[in-house]
Amino acid sequence: MLTKKAAILVMALLLSACGYHLRGALDLPANLKNVYVEGASGALHEQFKQIMKSSSSQLADSRKGAGIVVKIFNEDFSRRVLSLSTRGKSNEFELNYRLDYELANADDAPLMERQSVDVRREYYNDQQFMIAKDQEEAVIRNEMYQQAVQTIVNRARVVLETGAK
């Protein structure tokens, strides 16, 4: 029993020493440990919450406690048919997610001018498995929200580390 515990301890130490991180976890500077997000949709806000939690950070409840404020503008999700089958049913879709955002400090002083994020994905719509395709689209949308949040967080990290405007 003692050797089993020792083996587990050694494995834990080796994993932490090799730089292993949980998937989705980001190494964030101190200013990004407490982020306030305003104007985001529920799905985008949820992705911010998940990414912050996996990175040992949190979303602030108000601007006052935040190290940085992310302002979301013009959030839009669209779906476009790319190809049709011989029966006139859609075979392929393109999903497009776009938003504008701005970074500010807690006192509303801008840290970065308004930028945009565009995320596009295509997927094949097999007419025989319609229920599964609806679930596939939901998974793809979730991944698109996650990619947008990671883009915003990475740009915010660069702004904070370089001090550039």
Structural summary, described in words:
The chain has a five-stranded mixed beta sheet, with helices on one face. The chain starts with a helix and ends with a helix. About 3% of the residues have low confidence. The chain is an alpha/beta fold. 38% of the residues lie in helices and 33% in strands. The longest helix is centred in the C-terminal third of the chain and has 33 residues.
Topology:
Elements: H1 2-17, E1 34-38, H2 42-54, E2 58-59, E3 68-84, E4 90-104, E5 110-124, H3 130-162
Parallel strand pairs: 1-2, 1-3
Antiparallel strand pairs: 3-4, 4-5
Provide the descriptors you would attach to this structure in a database record.
single chain; 165 residues; alpha/beta; Double Stranded RNA Binding Domain; flat
Given the helix and strand composition, which structural class is it? Answer: alpha/beta
Count of discrete domains: 1
**Oligomeric grouping of the chains:** single chain
CATH class: Alpha Beta
- Sheet-strand content, in percent, reads 25-35%
CATH architecture: 2-Layer Sandwich
Rg (C-alpha, Å)? 20 Å
